[in-house]
Structures are given as C-alpha cells and as structure tokens.
Amino acid sequence: MRLSALVTVALAAVALTSPLQKRAKAQVVTKCTVPNTAALTFDDGPFVYLYDVSKALVAAGAKGTFFFNGDNYGGCIYNEDQAKRVKYAYDKGHQIASHTWSHAHLNNLTWDQLHHEFWLVEQAFQKIAGVTPAFMRPPYGEYNDLVLEVAGNRGQTVAIWDFDSRDSAGATAAQSNKLYDDLAKAHPSTILALNHDVYQQTAQVVVPHAIATLQKAGYKLVTLAECLGRPAYQSVGAPAVRDDSWKC
C-alpha cells in the first residue's frame, strides 16, 4: 500500500474513534416522561438567589435543575462566589446543566463558535464540580440544525420546556403564582417548568408557592434527568484545585 493511502486510512481511523465525530444530532426534549413528575428548572445563574431556591426545594424534599452560564448575569463562573454557588447546587443534589457560556443567540454562531460556547461551560463544570453535563438549554430557547449537530457532537441533549412562569417576561409574582395554580388544576401527566433564579421574587415568592402547589397536586419534584429517567452527567469525577486557569 502506498504511503498516501496509509495516511488516509490512519486519518479515517482517528476520525471514527474521536468522540466529536459523526454523532447524531442532539435530541430535543420538551416534556418529562416519568408520570407524576415535575421538574422545576432555573436559567441564567449562578446568582445569589440560588441559595433561596435550593433551601426551599431541600426543605420540601425536592430537587431542581440549574442551567448555568459561564459569563453572564452574575459574572464569571470562576469567581469565588460564583464557583461556590455551582458547587453548592451540585452538592445539594440538584442537577447542574449548561446554558452556554455567554448567553448568545446560538442561531447566529458558526460551528467553531458554538463548540467554544459549549466547551467553556463543560470545562468549568469539570473544574468546579468534577462533572460533564449531559443536558443543555439554548438561550431564548433558540436552536437550529447546526446547534443540534454541535450539541449532539458534544453528547448533550437539548432541553426546552412545556410551562413558562413568565418571570423573564415581566410577570409579577402574583401572575406567576396564578400560572402555577392554573397548571396544577389542569394537571398534565408531567411538567417541565421554566423559571429564572436571578429574580428575587421568583426565588423567594414564586418558588415556594410552586413547590407547595405542585406537591399538593400530587407531583414529585425531581431533576430534569430524573423526570426523563436518564443520567444527568456524561462523566462524574473529582473537582480540580483552583489555579490560575480559573478565569474568564
């Protein structure tokens, strides 16, 4: 066999074994699949009100899912306070997942830019909590085929929602609470709820109301992964020791 042919075969073998080659497009989930479960999810953190959300959930024997950005609402995820929040959520048994690095409109990004948005969050999660996320939520709920290809290449399922508390749209706490009341009365088999832990009224007023209302209606409040019957992470290991690479 000629040298050029050998090189071609070798490169093909590398491509087939690479974890970022030729994976299927990511699945998009909009609903839970385990009956009588409700997943309360929170976007745009980590932020200071995460603690209020977590305490309300833990006190009720419930868990939530936090979709974190790397550098957005609360600043750089590697800042000591931010990293502490990420680790706190994970240690309390909540699921942590990716909301991408900078909360960009993903439909406007190139293949390389998308991989960068995903990878930076993965790297931060590995350093801070020792895990690689299996789920991501695209900012604004926006995605196209390229986003799905990149998410699939990176082994992540794209998670949307089937209920919106409307907190990011300017709903008052009373309005969000009414939406949860109406939801409980409608009583769908499962609930995948969108909230944002960066709003004080959501964390301190809406979340306690949602927990009480949904549990009274018979729902078990679980993580996104649990409501789908899937693993929350692609890998789980030990967190890294803080060093000079922990920066945005």
UniProtKB/TrEMBL annotation:
GO terms for molecular function: hydrolase activity, acting on carbon-nitrogen (but not peptide) bonds; metal ion binding. It is found in: Cell membrane. PANTHER family: CHITIN DEACETYLASE, CHITIN DEACETYLASE-RELATED. Pfam families: Polysacc_deac_1. Residues 1-26 form the signal peptide. This is Acetyl xylan esterase II. Its cofactor is Co(2+). Gene3D superfamilies: Glycoside hydrolase/deacetylase. GO terms for biological process: carbohydrate metabolic process; cell wall organization. It is a lipid-anchor; GPI-anchor. GO terms for cellular component: plasma membrane; side of membrane. Keywords: Carbohydrate metabolism, Cell membrane, Cell wall biogenesis/degradation, Glycoprotein, GPI-anchor, Hydrolase, Lipoprotein, Membrane, Metal-binding, Signal. The keyword Lyase does not apply. CDD domains: CE4_ClCDA_like (cd10951). Its main location: membrane. It comes from Collybia nuda.
